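ESCALATION

Customer reports they have been waiting on this structure for their group meeting. Please prioritize. Original submission:
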Amino acid sequence: MSRKIGNKAEDKAVEFLQDLDFVILERNFYSKFGEIDIIALKDDVLHFVEVKSGKGEPVYNITPAKMSKIVKTSQFYLNKTKLTFDYCYDGLIVKENSIDFIENISFY
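Update from on-call: job pushed to the front of the queue and completed.
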């Protein structure tokens, strides 16, 4: 998938989250471990959000290996920012005519 298509999906994801009263803290946060698409705050809980889009079932692209990178990157972010909120990992699946929000993904 091209970066342009990915950015469009992330723009839709940000709008969706903002409509649900999330405050967007970061987009495309990078570390040596990987990237987190969106970091948002709602009700004193940090949400590390992985956005997936495309044909078929993009949710299957949120693999254990991808989650491992997200977890390491989130720990780097928390150490860097010194934020002490509770946090969770979410998936946001953007399809042509729908958005599915999967809160609190866990692979452990």
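Sent to customer with the following note: The domain at 3-102 is CATH 3.40.1350.10 (Trna Endonuclease; Chain: A, domain 1).
Escalation resolved.
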